[in-house]
Every structure is written in C-alpha cells, then in structure tokens.
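Deliverable D4.2, example record:
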Amino acid sequence: MIGGSATCALTRAIAFYATHSYASGGPASRHGHLYRVEVTLGGSIAPGREMLIDLGTLDALLTQAVAEPLAGRHLNEAIDEAAQAPSCEAVAAWCWR
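Output generated by the structure prediction step:
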C-alpha cells in the first residue's frame, strides 16, 4: 500500500554447493548437493521507504552469513551439528544460530 501503513512478508533464497558424507559410509560416501536456503522476513513497511528491506542488503547478509562459510566446504567439518548426521535439518539449525 503506497502512502499508508502496510505489513508484508518477503522471501529470498540463496544456493550453494557443498559436500558431506555419512559416518557409516566410509570415504566413498562423500558426495555433494546443491543446497538452497530460503529466508522469510515480515513486518511493516517503513513510511516513506516503500520497502521492507533493501534487497541488496539482504542478499549481502545471506551471502556473508550462509554461502561464504559453507560453499565448497565439507559439511561434516564446517557444521558441528553435521558431524554425525549431515542432514538438511543440521544445515537449517546452523543457519538459525
């Protein structure tokens, strides 16, 4: 709503490639995936700004906080929670930290 007060939600996604392995699988179990992380922000649009957040700022935060630390890494080593169970849930828990 232009010129008034509005509440909205915005979802942005970032993707990165990383490897992992299963504890019981030995070295041959090491393989990679393309991971996609989505972040949803919600709130009121600031009067006079016409936006919830600057997309460039949000993209930079996602890159710095998620992609740079994990892209090209072995998740069993990069994420403490993934050492024994390198699951998508472990990646989500790490991102939520």
